[in-house]
């Protein structure tokens, strides 16, 4: 496969809720995904770890595009 770039699958994750009243563990998960502001969208590699983090905080973050 010389000359061909291998494109990794990515997910777009959007912060949909505020962390103001959330437990510290959930805040840490949001920060671990790289989210800081409400409605911010980040692109992360599609791995079981990242999907699991989003599943732990469905009220705070959502996958907007696969």
What would your notes on this structure say?
This protein is an alpha+beta fold and 66 residues long. The protein has one domain: Ribosomal protein L30/L7 (Ribosomal Protein L30, Chain: A, 2-Layer Sandwich). The chain has 2 helices and 3 strands, in the order E-H-E-H-E. The protein has helices spanning 24-32, 48-56; strands at 10-15, 41-45, 61-65. The protein has a 3-stranded antiparallel beta sheet with strand order 2-1-3, covered by helices on one side. The model has no long low-confidence stretch (mean pLDDT 92).
Summarize the structure.
Helices cover 27% and strands 24% of the residues.
Provide the spatial order of strands within the biggest beta sheet.
Answer: 2-1-3
Name the assembly state.
single chain
Structural class by secondary-structure content: alpha+beta
> What can be said about the biggest beta sheet?
3 strands, antiparallel
Whole-number total of structural domains: 1
Mean pLDDT: 92
Layout: helices, strands, pairs:
Layout: E1 10-15, H1 24-32, E2 41-45, H2 48-56, E3 61-65
Antiparallel strand pairs: 1-2, 1-3
List keywords for this structure.
66 residues, alpha+beta, Ribosomal Protein L30, Chain: A, 3-stranded antiparallel sheet, 2 helices, elongated
């Amino acid at each position: 496969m010389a000359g061909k770039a291998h494109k990794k699958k990515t997910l777009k994750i959007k912060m949909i809720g505020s962390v103001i009243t959330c437990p510290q563990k959930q805040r840490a998960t949001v920060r671990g995904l790289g989210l800081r502001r409400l409605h911010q969208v980040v692109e992360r590699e599609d791995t079981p770890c990242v999907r699991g983090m989003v599943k732990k905080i469905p009220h705070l973050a959502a996958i907007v595009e696969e």
